[in-house]
Design goal:
- By secondary structure, this protein is of the alpha+beta class.
- It has one domain: Thiol Ester Dehydrase, Chain A, CATH 3.10.129.10.
- Helix content is about 25%, strand content about 35%.
- The longest helix has 19 residues.
- The protein starts with 7 loop residues before the first strand and ends in a 7-residue tail after the last helix.
C-alpha cells in the first residue's frame, strides 16, 4: 500500500532543495479519528510528507541511481502548529550533507509562511540487488515507478 502525502512539487533544484505542497482535504480517512471534533493532520504524517519530499529530491539529484531511499533517522523534530482541513502544508527540504549511502536534510513544513513542523532527517540510499541479490530484477521496476510518480507530482513536466 502506498500513500502519497504530497499533491505537487512546485520547485526542484537537484542536489540542493525541493518545495512541495499538501492540501489537507476534509474527506481524508484519518481525520475521522484524529480527532472527530478537531480534525488535524497527525504529526507522523507531517513527518512523512517531509520524508517523501526529501526522497524525491534525493532520487532526482542522483538520476534515480538507487531503487530504495528510506528514512534512517529523524533529529530534532519540532511541531508548532496544526494542519486542519482546507489548509496547505508547504514542505521544503534542503540537502546539507551527503556521503556514499546517506543524505542529511533540513526540512520544514509551513502554513501561510509560519513554521508548523521542522527538523532534520537522514535518508539511506541503496539498490535491492546490493542487499538481496535474488531481487535484482526489482530495481529497474522500482526506479521506473518512481520516475512516473515524480512526473505526476511535477505536473507532467518530467524534464526537471
Amino acid at each position: 500500500m502506498r500513500f502519497c502525502l504530497l499533491d505537487r512539487i512546485t520547485e526542484l533544484q537537484p542536489g540542493a532543495r525541493i518545495t512541495a505542497v499538501k492540501k489537507l482535504r476534509p474527506e481524508e480517512d484519518y481525520l475521522k479519528d484524529h480527532f472527530p471534533r478537531f480534525p488535524v493532520m497527525p504529526g507522523v504524517l507531517m513527518l512523512e510528507a517531509m520524508y517523501q519530499a526529501s526522497a524525491w529530491l534525493v532520487r532526482q539529484s542522483e538520476g534515480f541511481a538507487h531503487s530504495m531511499v528510506i528514512l534512517k533517522e529523524v533529529r530534532n523534530i519540532k511541531y508548532a502548529d496544526f494542519v486542519t482541513p482546507g489548509i496547505e502544508l508547504v514542505v521544503t527540504a534542503e540537502i546539507f550533507k551527503q556521503d556514499d549511502s546517506t543524505t542529511s536534510l533540513k526540512c520544514q513544513g509551513t502554513i501561510d509562511g509560519s513554521v508548523a513542523v521542522n527538523g532534520r532527517i537522514v535518508l539511506e540510499r541503496f539498490n535491492l540487488a546490493d542487499r538481496y541479490p535474488e531481487r535484482r530484477q526489482t530495481d529497474p521496476y522500482l526506479r521506473e515507478q518512481h520516475r512516473q510518480v515524480l512526473c505526476r507530482l511535477l505536473g507532467g513536466n518530467c524534464s526537471s
